[in-house]
Write a structure and sequence with these properties.
The chain contains 13 helices and twelve strands. By secondary structure, it is an alpha/beta fold. The protein has a seven-stranded mixed β-sheet with strand order 1-3-2-4-11-5-12, with helices on both faces. Strands 8-7-9-6-10 form a five-stranded mixed β-sheet, sandwiched between helices. Helix 1 (29-36) crosses helix 10. One of its GO terms (cellular component) is periplasmic space.
Length: 317
């Protein structure tokens, strides 16, 4: 199997084997385990895993034809649904209520969190980072329009904060971890309740989904087996995660309980997507000319029902 070190072009040797754009994130652990334990081969599929930095980039790989499937949180998927892209969400395989981190320079908030008004905040546009930034600011009574928004790539967030180019960053792991590491004693993570339950999902190009059902089912079956391995062998799973994502093993151990790995399609996913769609329209992140999307038309539960029928809420067709 081929695993690209960076997002970009991959040389693919199989005509029907899926090219899967996988976000370099702790949430993608089932893919790393399935690769490590040869679980894909056990289910007669040989995917090429194309590593990319963030779900929005993974989706771009798929939309632009360099991948057949992709991993992403529901937020970038929501934006693509607004545009009517020919993609479908197949299953949720991970959830986390604390993957997002708002890391701020301590000197900025020594007089209180409201001091963030007018400050430069780094985030990744139209991703979970963007959504979480607004949620957290609103929680502290700060109008998201009152800060200086600095959109950037996820891998640039930590360095920008450490250099003082921004005053705070909204980042997912491992970039939140990187921001804390580079900032050291000069930065802190802003406390908040669990504002956002992020899902990580498997998406597919519609053409591939409709023509390669057996391969897609094999991918899901391998992920399901990988998840069972994670539950039974957490210590080994953490070692795989530390190596493949590049996080400190002790940090992973501390946050391990925040990650929930399970193949599901829950009604709450649609509720979350609908709330995010209202946010996107209200904040002007999508054109007012676009119709409100019907998310159920972009979700296919049929493959997951073959693997774990009880994991699908009745709301899904």
């Amino acid at each position: 199997m081929l695993f690209c070190a960076l997002a970009g072009l991959c040389s693919i040797a199989w005509s029907s084997e899926p090219r899967i754009a996988v976000s370099k994130s702790p949430l993608s652990l089932p893919f790393y385990v399935a690769r490590e334990k040869n679980l894909f081969a056990r289910h007669k599929v040989q995917p090429a895993l194309v590593e990319c930095l963030g779900g929005s980039r993974c989706i771009k790989e798929m939309i632009e034809g360099r991948a057949d499937m992709a991993t992403a949180s529901e937020l970038p998927f929501m934006f693509e649904v607004f545009e009517g892209r020919p993609i479908t969400l197949i299953a949720t395989f991970a959830t986390n209520k604390d993957d997002m981190k708002f890391v701020v320079r301590k000197e900025i908030i020594k007089g209180g969190v409201k001091a963030l008004v007018g400050k430069r905040i780094g985030f990744v546009n139209k991703t979970a980072s963007h959504y979480y930034k607004d949620l957290l600011l609103l929680y502290y009574g700060i109008d998201p329009q009152s800060i200086v928004a600095v959109p950037m790539l996820p891998e640039a967030l930590a360095m920008a904060l450490s250099k003082g180019e921004v005053d705070a960053v909204s980042a997912w792991e491992p970039w939140g971890y990187a921001a804390r590491g580079l900032g050291g004693n000069t930065v802190t993570v802003l406390d908040s309740p669990k504002l956002y339950s992020q899902t990580f999902n498997l998406l597919a190009n519609n053409n591939y989904r409709l023509t390669q059902l057996r391969k897609m089912t094999g991918v899901l079956a391998a992920l399901d087996e990988a998840i069972q391995f994670i539950k039974k062998n957490p210590a080994e799973a953490r070692q795989i995660l530390a190596r493949d994502v590049g996080m400190d093993p002790e940090t992973i151990k501390v946050v391990w309980s925040d990650y929930q790995f399970e193949l599901t399609l829950q009604q709450s996913l649609v509720t979350t997507l609908q709330g995010q769609a209202r946010w996107a329209r209200g904040e002007g992140h999508v054109s007012q000319s676009l119709a409100d999307p019907e998310f159920l038309h972009f979700i296919d539960s049929s493959l997951l029902r073959k693997i774990r029928p009880n994991a699908v809420d009745f709301v899904y067709p």
